[in-house]
Amino acid sequence: MRTTLFAIAAASLLATAAQAAPATYAIDPTHTFATFEIDHMGATTNRVRFDKKQGTVEFDRAGKTGKVEVVLDMTSVNSGTAGFDKHLQSADLFNVAQFPTAKFVSDKFVFDGDKLKEVTGQLTLLDKAQAVTLKANKFNCYPSPMLQKREVCGGDFETTIDRTAFGVNYGVDWGFSKQVRLVLQIEAVKQ
Predict the structure, then answer these.
(1) Which domains occur in the chain, in start order?
(2) What is the largest CA-CA distance in the chain?
(3) Do residues 119 and 136 make contact, with C-beta atoms less than 8 angstroms apart?
């Protein structure tokens, strides 16, 4: 009898552990937007997006832990103006010929109760990595009615970086801002 109770308890514990395992999600590029904003001489704000991005998320809701990797194709930079896009891709700025991708990698999710507060990791741009904290403005998981009720998790995240920390110095001597606001709206589908 004691052996049977032990076996039932062990099976129950294993079932609970299996349910608490992190789930893997693939970033949905049609519902994910990566943009940046930079002040233009105090007069306007330049807003630019990256059209191609990919990545994965591992998320353990019960354990409040996760990992994320997002890769941006820097050749897909899109300001809406071809000449500006060409300059952004040049060696003056993103040098896409030598550094065609940028990457954000994190293994630290910070919660305030059940609410995701921030994701901390490393942003690599122009082969230079810097610590970055993405503030979560929104975050939710839901059964997608468009994907046969598969779980989708997503949120709006933002941070501000000093672009000169990555060696993007163009125009600083003329008064262009060093500060760049990064905005990442991401949705990922459970695999």
Answers:
(1) 21-190 (2.40.128.110)
(2) 82
(3) yes
